[in-house]
# Entry
Amino acid sequence: MSDPVAMSDLDLRTLFLFEKLTDDQLAWIAAHGRTVHLPAGTVVIREGDPAEQFFVLLSGTISLTRKVGQDEVQTVRTEQRGVYMGATQAYLRDDGIPRRYAATMRALDDSDFFVMSSADFGHMMREWFPMAIHLLEGLALGMRSSAAAISERQRLAALGALSAGLMHELNNPAAAASRATGALRQRVAGMRHKLAMLAAGKVPPDRLTALVELQEDVIERAAKAPVLTAMQAADREDELGDWMDEHRVTGGWDIAPVFAQAGIDVDCLDEIEQRVGSPELLDQAIHWIGYALETEQLMSDIEDATGRVSSLVSAAKQYSQMDRAAHQWIDVHGGLDSTLVMLNHKIGNGVTVVKDYDRTLPQIPAHPAELNQVWTNLIDNAVQAMNGAGTLTVRTHRDDEHVIVSIGDTGPGVPDDLKKRVFEPFFTTKPVGEGTGLGLDISYRIVVNGHGGDIHLESRPGDTQFKVRLPLTEPASA
# Structure
């Protein structure tokens, strides 16, 4: 680095940043700034360091890079004379937030800069352009406040939507269990009535015992019966209904669907007739066995419904990370599965979900509740992009020392000119009122800043993928 030297007023006026200033203002700047020569390869400023200087490029080529995970991503490369960087927001009032360089700047060639301290630059701006500073402060603070307010509102809206969806998902099995319980009560009452009728019919004890054993045999056979297609079940119902008509079973066509659903065929009915042994008892025996089969089916329905409720509650706990540490070692598949369950009402029947998981992936250090927010944003965006019809693909695999989670959809894709803007705050491709433009910005900050990872977009019509790259090792910010 060469020794700093002063810059003349005339030379300062050749820079577009200062060309409209008065002679006195130029003289003040010349007195408070210096030129500096730096050799090629010099790191001029480093991202994250305190922002103490304001730089204007006089000659040479510089690059600006930002840290993304473990990589340095170049955002700007320029040799334009007069471009500025460094403590560009030194004029903002002191709100207790330390000002830091937002990027790393390197001199690619031997370069010359005009340099001012952040204190002098901030003082100059506040004193000379008070109205402009008020506008800039209002803009900066307003955007910060708006982002915070909208982000909070977006979280509340997402929570409300997820709660409504969860209640909808819970209502279905709960209602099914309630209906099955009511029907079960009626069938049990019918069984008691039929048993009383059998007993009152002076059935020999050995025959009644045989009938009870027959009931258990039929239920066991039904439990092992293969599942029938809709066409096979309809044909089976016709066969059973005809058999019951021929044997004068009352209400045979109402009972036939129960036997068909249980996988009972005509051969089984012939066996029942043979073991009952009495034409007079056959009608009551068929009805009694029908009630037994239906109670078994209803109890299975109740078991399935309550199991579904339990699974939903478990998914909700996994999604919200209740009773869990904020930072822990996790299997990413648990969060992905619970998010898919929570968003099932949004995904709908028109979207096919394909899960291509690498189950051999190791656990990673993460904030699981925050990652679930990322999965929610990406899956929700994918579903909206497909407009209710398409394929949602959730894929995981390992890439060296990182886990890759890919959320893909078969929507129309993102145009090339918009790809680089999707992570910008407030930028959205959705219609007015349907998006805040903060979902991907929040996801980016969670993945990059919170986990030391990376997230990027690959898109063409019919194949859009957001790929989240998460390190296998503990990030420095964790």
